């Protein structure tokens, strides 16, 4: 059992610790934790993916990751704007699928390379595992449908018509 002197000393120590904790910043809090010292800073490297940032993080209010293609190779980090629209904020490319050469990211995996053809310019190294790339051009509504959209639409219509012609014995009833 603790003596009166020990109890009062313990209470004083707790008050001192609480006062010190309240005076600390978030970074000081994390460094004070035993696991905080071993943690690497974001973008320092050591993860499983290279991050290709396409748009600034500040444009978005919430985020979701989507696995694109084969699991574990390419992930899309989608961001939701305050207006409610979704867009790609960043791409996460597995380190086994790409390598860094002369300050740019070279993608080796065929599926990942195909999916990232939409990135118009070079993928430039910033720091650690972080890279930046320009976003796709924003096509104004007045220019839509584009030639590619028209071509894709007509191709889809022809595909649907061919599939209908191939269905034997199915008569449509007009009542």
Short overview:
The chain has 175 residues and is of the alpha+beta class. It is 30% helix and 25% strand. It has four helices and eight strands.
Secondary structure blueprint with pairings:
Blueprint: H1 4-22, H2 26-32, E1 49-53, E2 62-68, E3 74-80, E4 86-94, E5 98-101, E6 104-107, H3 110-115, E7 124-127, E8 130-132, H4 147-166
Parallel strand pairs: 1-8
Antiparallel strand pairs: 1-4, 2-3, 3-4, 5-6, 7-8
Pick out its properties:
30% helix, 175 residues, two-stranded antiparallel sheet, alpha+beta, six-stranded mixed beta sheet
Could you tell me the number of beta strands? 8
Taking strands numbered 1, 2, ... along the chain, how are they ordered across the largest sheet? 2-3-4-1-8-7
Structural class: alpha+beta
Q: How do the helices and strands follow one another from N- to C-terminus?
A: HHEEEEEEHEEH
Strand content: 15-25%
**What is the radius of gyration computed over CA atoms, rounded to a whole number of angstroms?**
27 Å
Categorize the overall geometry: elongated
């Amino acid at each position: 059992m603790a003596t009166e002197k020990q109890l009062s000393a313990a209470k004083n120590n707790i008050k001192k610790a609480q006062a010190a904790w309240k005076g600390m910043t978030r970074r000081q809090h994390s460094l004070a934790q035993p696991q905080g010292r071993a943690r690497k800073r974001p973008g320092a490297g050591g993860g499983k993916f290279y991050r290709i940032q396409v748009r600034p993080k500040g444009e978005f209010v919430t985020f979701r990751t989507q696995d694109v293609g084969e699991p574990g190779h390419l992930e899309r980090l989608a961001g939701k704007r305050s207006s409610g629209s979704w867009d790609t904020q960043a791409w996460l490319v597995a380190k086994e699928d790409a390598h860094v050469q002369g300050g740019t990211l070279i993608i080796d995996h065929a599926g990942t390379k195909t999916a990232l053809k939409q990135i118009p310019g070079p993928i430039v190294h910033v720091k650690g595992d972080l890279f930046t790339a320009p976003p796709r051009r924003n096509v104004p509504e007045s220019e839509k449908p584009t030639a590619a959209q028209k071509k894709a639409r007509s191709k889809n219509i022809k595909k649907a018509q061919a599939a209908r012609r191939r269905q034997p014995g199915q008569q449509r009833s007009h009542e």
